[in-house]
What we know:
The protein has helices at about 80-85, 90-105, 120-125, 170-185, 210-225, and strands at about 5-10, 20-30, 30-35, 50-55, 60, 65-70, 110-115, 135, 140-145, 165-170, 190, 230. It is an alpha/beta fold. It has two domains: about 5-60, Urease, subunit C, domain 1 (Roll), CATH 2.30.40; about 65-230, Metal-dependent hydrolases (TIM Barrel, Alpha-Beta Barrel).
Amino acid sequence: MTDLLLRDVRLIDGTGAAPRAHVDVLVAGGVVTEVAPTGTLAAASDPDPARLRVVEGAGRTLLPGFLDCHVHVSTLPGGDTLDTVLAPESLLTLRSVPHLSATLDAGITTARDLAGADSGFRDAVEQRLVRGPRLQVAIRILSITGGHGDWRTIEGVALDTGPGAGAVADSPAEFVRAVREVLRQGADWVKVAATGGMGSPRSHPESGGLSEPELRAVVAEADRHGGVGVAA
């Protein structure tokens, strides 16, 4: 791996310390190893292009990558519902690849996908098959009947059967089973619809979601599996 020298930047390091102007930052093996006033690093005195890539910051600001706690990388903005239902899963997946790259270009290096992306998205980024931020996935949203996440017609026909389809449950025992199922599928987080939400067929933001006993059952079961977090 070629080392990287970011020369003459204004560094905000994320620790709460004041910004540092006119510094050089050396990245070796993918890790920041040195920070020093511009022009004082030994590695910068006679850089070998074969071993060291130099990027001139010209006083621009350098800061750590951002973490976005709520994304849906497989959802197309303004997408047509019928098209989403009828399109093959492979096409929907490939459509999301530019979103992953654009997210990384925006400075987000870690993202938490709270329904839509399955574990394959995360693994593809880790294996460098696609370019994108590190992903943590919830896969599905756990919902009560008629809640934010129940994407069925009045007759009960599922509008979405893909990875992002909601998992409907209606008792503490059913929600425990739903938690186990998304964890079996490789989820890093458990996402629940604690209230109603925007865009739901049968609910709105002021609608109710899981009852307190149901929510407690979800949290307890997720915690029992190594302290998995719950997003609500």
